[in-house]
Design a protein that fits this description.
The protein is an alpha/beta fold and about 475 residues long. The protein has 3 domains: about 10-170, 3-Layer(aba) Sandwich (Rossmann fold); about 185-350, Rossmann fold (3-Layer(aba) Sandwich), CATH 3.40.50.300; about 355-480, Helicase, Ruva Protein, domain 3. Helix content is about 45%, strand content about 15%. It is built from 19 helices and 16 strands. The longest helix has about 30 residues, at about 145-175. The radius of gyration is 33 Å and the shape is elongated.
C-alpha cells in the first residue's frame, strides 16, 4: 500500500493591516504520516499575533500528543515562560511592539536550553542567518507544510533529549572517575594549585618546568581536567623518547607510501588531539625543523600529513614540559627563540621534592595506601626508622623515585609496617644528612649504582629511574660515567 502524502496547509491570504493569514487544517484522515508520535511529554508554546495561525498549530500539536499552548504576543509569551517550563517555542518574527528576534534573545537569557523555531512569511537568506545566529534551532516559512514542521519538531525533541543525556553521562563520568590530585600542603604546592585553577580556564600555552619526576605530566592532566576541553582527549607525546624521523610522523601523521615502510595511512597526534589538549613532554629535545613546523600549526591551526596535500584544520591547546634550561639552549642556538616564546606564554615551575620536605611524609603515606590496595596487602604504616630514612634521603628522582621506592617496599614488606630493610638498598647507601654532599653527587652516585645493578642495561635502568633513555644518556654523558 503506497504512502499517503499529507497536503500542505491550505492557506488563504487576506489583507488586514497590510497582511494576514487564515489557515485551514487538513482533515484528520489526511494526517496518517505524522501521527506516529503519540503521548509526547514535550511542551510547545506557539507565539504568533495571528489567531488562526497559533490556534491551528496548537490544535495540531495537541492532536499529535504534545502539550501545547499559545501566546498572542511577546508580553504574553514571557508571562507564560515565567509560570512553567517549555521545551519548544515557535515564534513569529514579525510581531507588534516586541519582535520575534527580540523575544528570541530574551528567551535565550531566561533558559538557553529551550529550542526556538522561527516562523516567517518573508523567507530570505538574511532572515535565516539572523535567526540562526540569534540561537534559533530552525525556521519555517508560511504557508507552513506540516511534513516539514513535524520533521523539525522531531529533530528538536531528539536534540534536546540527546543534550540532556549527554549532560547526565558527563556528570556520571565525573562522579565515577576520581580527579587526579596534587599532593602536598607546602606553600609552593598551594601556589601551584591556585595557578592551575586560573590557567585551566584559559586556552593559553603552558610551559611546565621542573626536574625529572616532579610531576609535570600530572600538572598537565590537572589543567586539562579542569578546562572546558576536559571531555576531549589529552594526547601526550614524549618527544625525548622518539628519534627525529619518528617524532615528525608521530605528530603530523603520514599518508600511505609517503616513505619506506609507510604501508598504511596514519593519523598523527595533532589530529587526534583536535578539540582537546596536546601535551609535549621533553619539548627541549625537539629538532629545529619540527619546531618550525609546530610553530606554523600553533599559529594557523592547520597542517598536512607527511606525503599528503590535504589541509587538515585542528583546534587544540598545547601544554609543554621540560627539565632543561631552554633559555640557555636559545642562547646556544639549539632551540628556536620564536618557538620558545610561543609555548612559554604561561610558565609553571615545579620545585624538586628536596625543596618541600614537608610533603615527603604525605607522599609516602599516599603511595603506601595506594599500593597496599593494588597489591592487596595489609601494609598499614611506615615504621619510625623507615620514615626517618625516607625523610633524610635527597630524592634525586623526586616524586617518581619515592613512588617506586614505596611500591617496592609494600611488595617485600613482611608485616603491617614498612621497615628500613624493605626500602631499596641503594637508598640506604646514598642517604646522607642534607647538605653533606651536593645534589649532583647524589644523583651521579644513584645513577651509577643502578647502572651497575642492571649490568649497564640502559632500557632497564631508565625504567627503574623513571626517565626515558635519551635523558639517561644525557646524564651519563653529563657525569662522565663509564663501565
Amino acid at each position: 500500500m503506497g504512502r499517503h502524502r499529507i497536503r500542505p496547509f491550505e492557506v488563504n491570504i487576506r489583507r488586514r493591516d497590510g497582511h494576514g493569514w487564515a489557515i485551514q487544517m487538513p482533515a484528520p484522515q489526511d494526517r496518517t504520516e505524522v501521527r506516529g508520535l503519540k503521548n509526547h511529554t514535550a511542551a510547545i508554546l506557539v507565539v504568533d499575533d495571528e489567531a488562526a495561525v497559533r490556534e491551528s498549530l496548537c490544535s495540531w500539536f495537541q492532536k499529535d500528543g504534545y502539550t501545547a499552548d499559545t501566546a498572542a504576543d511577546a508580553v504574553e509569551a514571557l508571562k507564560k515562560l515565567s509560570k512553567r517550563a517549555w521545551d519548544i517555542i515557535l515564534l513569529d518574527i514579525k510581531m507588534p511592539n516586541i519582535s520575534g528576534m527580540e523575544l528570541l534573545r530574551r528567551i535565550r537569557q531566561i533558559d538557553p536550553d529551550i529550542v526556538s523555531i522561527m516562523i516567517t512569511a518573508y523567507a530570505s537568506v538574511d532572515t535565516a542567518v539572523e535567526a540562526l545566529k540569534g540561537g534559533a534551532f530552525d525556521y519555517v516559512v508560511k504557508p507552513i507544510d506540516p511534513d516539514d514542521l513535524s520533521r523539525i519538531v522531531r529533530k528538536a525533541i531528539e536534540q534536546r533529549k540527546l543534550k540532556k543525556e549527554n549532560l547526565s553521562l558527563r556528570t556520571k563520568i565525573e562522579d565515577m572517575v576520581p580527579e587526579e590530585e596534587l599532593i602536598g600542603d607546602s606553600p609552593q604546592i598551594k601556589k601551584i594549585q591556585e595557578i592551575i585553577e586560573t590557567v585551566s580556564q584559559t586556552d593559553v600555552s603552558v610551559l611546565i618546568r621542573g626536574d625529572s619526576g616532579t610531576g609535570k605530566e600530572l600538572i598537565a592532566r590537572l589543567i586539562h581536567a579542569k578546562s572546558t576541553r576536559r571531555y576531549s582527549p589529552l594526547v601526550a607525546v614524549n618527544c625525548g623518547a622518539l628519534p627525529e624521523s619518528l617524532l615528525e610522523s608521530e605528530l603530523f601523521g603520514h599518508e600511505k607510501g609517503s616513505f619506506t615502510g609507510a604501508q598504511y595511512k596514519h593519523r598523527g597526534k595533532l589530529e587526534i588531539s583536535n578539540g582537546g589538549t596536546l601535551f609535549l613532554d621533553e619539548v627541549g629535545t625537539i629538532d629545529a625543523k619540527t619546531q618550525v613546523d609546530l610553530l606554523r600549526v600553533l599559529d594557523s591551526k592547520q597542517f598536512t600529513r607527511l606525503g599528503g596535500n590535504q589541509v587538515i584544520s585542528v583546534d587544540f591547546r598545547v601544554i609543554c614540559a621540560t627539565n632543561q634550561d631552554l633559555e640557555q639552549l636559545v642562547k646556544e642556538g639549539k632551540f628556536r627563540e620564536d618557538f620558545y616564546y610561543r609555548i612559554n606564554v604561561f610558565p609553571i615551575n615545579l620545585p624538586p621534592l628536596r625543596d618541600r620536605s614537608g610533603d615527603i611524609r604525605l607522599f609516602a603515606q599516599h603511595f603506601l595506601e595506594r599500593y597496599a590496595i593494588q597489591i592487596r596487602k595489609k601494609v598499614l604504616r611506615l615504621s619510625p626508622e623507615a620514615l626517618s630514612l625516607i625523610m633524610k634521603h635527597d630524592w634525586p628522582g623526586n616524586v617518581r623515585e619515592l613512588k617506586n621506592a614505596i611500591e617496592r617496599a609494600v611488595v617485600v614488606a613482611g608485616g603491617p609496617e614498612i621497615r628500613p630493610e624493605d626500602l631499596p638498598f641503594d637508598m640506604n647507601k646514598i642517604s646522607k644528612p642534607r647538605g653533606e654532599s651536593s645534589i649532583a653527587e647524589v644523583e651521579r652516585a644513584h645513577i651509577l649504582d643502578m647502572l651497575g645493578r642492571t649490568g649497564w642495561n640502559i632500557t632497564r635502568t631508565a625504567q627503574i629511574l623513571g626517565i626515558d633513555r635519551v635523558t639517561l644518556y644525557n646524564k651519563i654523558k653529563k657525569y662522565g660515567l663509564s663501565k
